[in-house]
Amino acid sequence: MIITWAGDPAHQQTCTDRLARAFEQTMRRASGLLSARVHTSVDGARIVVDTQWERREAFDAWREAPEAQALFEQPGAAAEWDTRVYVRHSTHRPVRALHNEMVDRLVSQGFRGTPSIESALRTVPRHLFVPGVPLDVAYSQDVIVTRRGPDDLPVSSSSMPSIMALMLEQLDVRPGHHVLEIGAGTGYNAALLAVLAGSEGEVTTIDLDDTIVRDARDHLDAAGYARVRVLAGDGWLGAPQHAPYDRIEVTVGVSDLSPAWVAQLRDGGRLVAPLWLARGCELSVGFQKDGDRLRSVAVTECGFMRLRGPHAGAETFLNVRGWTVRMDAPDAARAAALEALLALEPRVEPAPPAPRGWHTRLLLEEPRALFLGRTQGSWWHAAHGILDTAVPPSLAFVTSRVWDHQLYTYGGTAARDALLERLATARSLHVQDLTIEVLPRTAPAPPDAIVLARPHYLYAIRERP
Fold first, then answer.
1. What whole-number distance in Å separates Cα of residue 356 and Cα of residue 274?
2. Most CB contacts within 10 A, which of 188, 255, 386, 424?
3. Of the candidates 82, 75, 60, which has an alpha carbon nearest to the alpha carbon of residue 22?
4. Under 8 Å CB-to-CB from 71, ≥6 apart: which residues?
5. pLDDT tops 80 at residue 317
6. How confident is the model at residue 158 (pLDDT cuts 50, 70, 90)?
């Protein structure tokens, strides 16, 4: 449908925004609707509504309903229909089949979560939390970006079902639990938490962004999870008015834990967070509270968008000549060095063999290490290496095996020499074998661990023998 306004230009944009919002809300209640996407033109003169329905009859019934007709009785403007219906006789498959196939793929790929998590994944309809997204995408294994910032970088998404399932396994929600989620996203994960906590449990989700909060509330209501509490506020502060919590799940990347989360967690309770450890190494860690300390019970690899707001911490991403570079608090000197080095023609040679997980060890142990990634076509390429800013500056990195596993050197030889030395003595590392203990900031640093000092806590990282 294309709706064209003919009204007072001074109020046209206001009317368009109001009508677009009304369409979104009304269509979510429409019987037989599979997906809907509402677009508004820049000048506010047009709205385009793109929908998918189970049957043509469902669309016709909705169009004739009083609620739909009322959308066009807006004060201050008149709307005209330009309705174009395209009937596709093809590959459409029932939502339930797509939904079950998504979970079946998770199971076939090695997901070994509890039966309750699998049941929750089969119960909550993901497509209702990403309206307008094609059904095959909604039930794919992919992350679905739902909002982007002014720089076109993602600020909100529905995470990959596989990492959501792993984090739910780490969280271990039981019936009757009170759960706090930091980062509302689309509301989908909160619905999964609600299924796991059961009718006697309680789920609260909080987000800094009013639009995300509003959309999550609408999605949860449309899917039948009105009992989930959705709050607008700074998630770093938690939600003390509803504490204490048996479980807290953080669904945004953080470099430090909030003291408020620890204070609002019951002793013996679990907290799961995507923790930025060092130089691009991000792990989802399940912690159990023991007095004033937290000890990890599960560790797995992950990748999440960072916390936003006043407690987000220093920026850790640089965009340099097509590369996204991750390092700890990149300063102007290192940024300039990267810009100059990546402008040079690299020297390329085969990389020596490296054991599994060598790059994680490099990021944890080498202060000059960094992670680089870029997209070429539909492929995401990753690389790990060393930046040496001593004169002459140098950069060396090894690309992933999936790409070409080459050693690239820019500038001088210091970074290459250091990286080759690391590779020659590299030992494999499985992140599942790491243990992470969170200590008070004033505690003495354990001598037998890699210790990362953050504003609020110390993180002691050890490797099981």
1. 22
2. 188
3. 75
4. 19, 22, 23, 26, 79
5. no
6. confident
The sheet carrying 457-463 orders its strands as 229-232, 202-207, 178-182, 245-250, 265-278, 281-290, 293-301, 434-440, 457-463, 450-453
Q: Which of 61-70, 142-151, 231-240 shows the lowest per-residue confidence on average (mean pLDDT)?
A: 142-151
Residue position matching structure tokens 């590369």:
323
Cα(254)–Cα(258) distance, integer angstroms? 9
Whole-model pTM: value is 0.76
- Alpha-carbon span 300 to 379, nearest angstrom: 23
pLDDT score at 165: 92
296 carries an active-site annotation:
no
In the set 156, 157, 158, 159, the catalytic residue is: 159
Residue 356: phi and psi, rounded to 5, are -60, 135
The pLDDT confidence band at residue 140, using thresholds 50, 70 and 90, is: confident
Biggest distance spanned by C-alpha atoms of the chain: 74
| Model pLDDT for residues 28-64, shown as the tens digit of each residue | 677 877 766 665 554 455 566 666 677 777 877 877 7
Three-state SS across the chain? CEEEEEECHHHHHHHHHHHHHHHHHHHCCCCCEEEEEEEECCCCCEEEEEEEECCHHHHHHHHHCHHHHHHHCCCCEEEEEECCCCCCCCCCCCHHHHHHHHHHHHHHCCCCCCHHHHHHHHHCCHHHHCCCCCHHHHCCCCCEEEEECCCCCEEEEECCHHHHHHHHHHHCCCCCCEEEEECCCCCHHHHHHHHHHCCCCEEEEEECCHHHHHHHHHHHHHHCCCCCEEEECCHHHCCHHHCCEEEEEECCEECCCCHHHHHHEEEEEEEEEEEEEECCEEEEEEEEEECCEEEEEEEEECCCCECCCCCCCCCCEEEECCEEEECCCCCHHHHHHHHHHHCCCCEEEECCCCCCCHHHHHHHHCCCEEEEEEEECCEEEEEEEEEECCCCCEEEEEECCCCCCEEEEEECCHHHHHHHHHHHCCCCCCHHHEEEEEEECCCCCCCCCEEEECCCEEEEEEECC
* Tokens of residue 412, six digits: 């001088």
Amino acid identity of residue 142, one-letter, is D
Give the residue among 384, 393, 344, 392 at the shortest CA–CA distance from 366.
384
347 Cβ neighbours under 8 A, 6+ residues apart: 408, 409, 410
Q: What's the chain's length in residues?
A: 465
